[in-house]
Amino acid sequence: MAETEIKKTVKRERRAPPLPRSRPNRPAPPAPGPHASLRFLRLAPRKVRLVADTIRGMPVGAALADLKFRPQSAAKPLAKLLRSAVANAEGKGGRVDVDALVVKTLTVDQGPKMRRFMPRAMGRAFKIEKKTSHVYVELGTAGR
Fold it and tell me: How many CB atoms within 10 Å of residue 74?
């Protein structure tokens, strides 16, 4: 009779998951001041940026006066957004000197594109992209 060897299964020890990598000591980003955002604005970001570049860094009163007399169609929604940010500053901060507020940051990013098709000659179709914009404004005081 031949002796049969019994294979022993070795239990493997489970390893602990690796520790997360430590991040370098960076200061926490500053808390945003009064801000407002406008999403899915049905204007191309390129056209909105033309107006946004003119009011960035201006005092709020001067920026609203400038937007009131601009012929571009992006001026009206940007003025409404700026008034919303001022209302947010008054509501959250309590006593805020509105005359001291300045447009600190104003970013215009591209939103999703709506794709439409236009019939063309000989049964072809051309793609038309109707672009949208996401606008974010943050206010700060003139001293900071």
Answer: 22
The CATH number of domain 35-115+131-141 is 3.90.470.10 = yes
d(CA 101, CA 143): 9
Q: Residue 1's pLDDT band (boundaries 50, 70, 90)?
A: low
What's the CA gap between 107 and 85, in Å, rounded?
14
pTM of the model: 0.76
Q: Among candidates 75, 77, 53, 50, which has minimal Cα distance to 65?
A: 75
- Give exposure, 23-42, as e/b (b: 16+ Cβ within 10 Å): eeeeeeeeeebbbbebeebe
Domain boundaries, the chain: 35-115+131-141
- For the CA atoms of the chain, what is the radius of gyration? 28
Q: Are 78 and 48 in contact (CB under 8 A)?
A: yes
Residues 37 and 138 sit within 8 Å (Cβ to Cβ): no
Residue 133 has pLDDT above 70, yes or no: yes
Distance CA 48, CA 45 (A): 5
- Chain CA centroid to CA 78, Å: 14
